[in-house]
Task: structure prediction
Amino acid sequence: MKTSDFYYDLPQELIAQTPLKDRSSSRLLCVDKSDGTLKHGVFTDIYDLINPGDCLVLNDTRVIPARLYGVKEGTGGKIEFLLLNRKEQDIWEVILKPGKKAKPGARFIFGDGLLTAEILDTINDGNRLVKFYYEGLFENVLDKLGEMPLPPYIIEHLEDRERYQTVYSRHEGSAAAPTAGLHFTPELLSRLESKGVKLAYVTLHVGLGTFRPVKVDDVENHKMHSEFYIMTEETANVINETKKNGGRIISVGTTSTRVLETIADENGYVQEATGWTDIFIYPPYKFKCPDALITNFHLPESTLLMLVSALASKDIIMKAYAEAVKEKYRFFSFGDAMFIQ
Result:
């Protein structure tokens, strides 16, 4: 299968630059994966589309203010750090711009010395291993100096950092938000629980590899980056109980889906697990655990578009995307949502 099979033409003005005032007021395109039927609605319709006994699986990761701006010690040359993965307490994998300034031993200063960093090594894809030096808690320093690492297609300034977090975010560690969950409000989640819908939480710390373009012609030759996940025993029990009782497992986002498919056995059952996943899902693929998916609209030729095309079919998804463009849906992180069932 070719990467170009997943291309679609998107007018620039349909890329959502800012979040809506009300999280749950976005539009919702419902896709029947059995026959490709499309229905238009709003996100709060999800209440009527999910049945008592179904289970929503949500990714409770929290985005850190992972973008830092500083200067090189000695020369004052400007540098941008983007934190990817914490390897040890004070050692991180980092993307740097410009990278030429960052050879092993080079030191950089942030916030007039509140934070300093030393390059330890150059690793995969030109990323660097960096050791940070500071006083107090790193999280507090990062909160003072860091900026939210919004995707490059968002050029507007984000006034409220919490709008790039889900309302149920708990565990810090992501370089990007699990954006399908941005549509939920505490009130909507509470209504769903009162209806008898189960909520189960997994953690997958989203890395930028998820959003990197596929640069190979043949999809099969693309290599995914690894991301850290946690499935607790409590969550596994809720998912397995739902399956045994005939309820649907509904993933909120591609990140939750990847955790489920990494862990699930051939019958779709899961167990407590922690680790790294580089699972790459593209058509044809037989899903083991999730029955349905709530997701946003994804970039052309992206691994995320390939995943949703595997759950329905490429033809159905590309038809749905053409309809969304025609009807002027809002695309990408702050955009509208799709429910594939």
User: Anything to note?
Assistant: The chain has a mean pLDDT of 95. The first helix runs from residue 46 to 49.
